Amino acid sequence: MEIERSIDEQKANFLSLFASSSTLVCCALPAVFVALGAGASFAALVSTFPFLITLSQYKIHITFFALVMLLIAGYANYRNYNLPCPADPELGRLCMKTRKRSRVIYYVSASIFIFATLFTYIVPSFL
Fold it and tell me: Which pLDDT tens digit goes with each residue over 46-73?
């Protein structure tokens, strides 16, 4: 039962990492290039990867999906944080290692999401 919960937590964390990374690629990357004055570099990037324009048209949907995934992963981390690990020493170490890794992945995902959201919605309003 504990291992199944850990697997669900890992899935939620990796989905939140994927969602927050997609927010970074679709929405924050163009804003960062423009803010740094690298518009020509961004134009070259868009000509190489034209799907970035299509992704940026759905930036609100992508951001909302990433937020929902982060909330689900955060809830899974919170729920599993105080659950007991197996009594077997090897399984116990594996359980604690998995929990620590899940928490790190969650914090990285949240950091990427916050960075992407800042550069997508807040920084352009000051420029």
Answer: 788 777 777 778 888 888 888 888 888 8
Q: Among 121, 127, 115, 105, which residue's Cα sits nearest to residue 6?
A: 105
Report pTM.
Answer: 0.71
Distance CA 27, CA 23 (A): 6
For 55, the token pair is: 């992704």
Contact present, 6 and 95 (Cβ < 8 Å)? yes
Number of domains within the chain: 1
Residue type, 116: A
Is-contact 95 86, C-beta < 8 A? Answer: yes
Whose tokens are 């939620």? That residue is 12
Exposure string over 13-46, b if 16+ CB within 10 A, otherwise e: bebbbebbbbbbbbbbbbbbbeeeeeeeebeeeb
Q: Is 119 in contact with 36 (CB distance < 8 Å)?
A: no
Q: Which domain holds residue 109?
A: 2-126
Q: Dihedral of CA 42/126/67/97: which sign?
A: positive
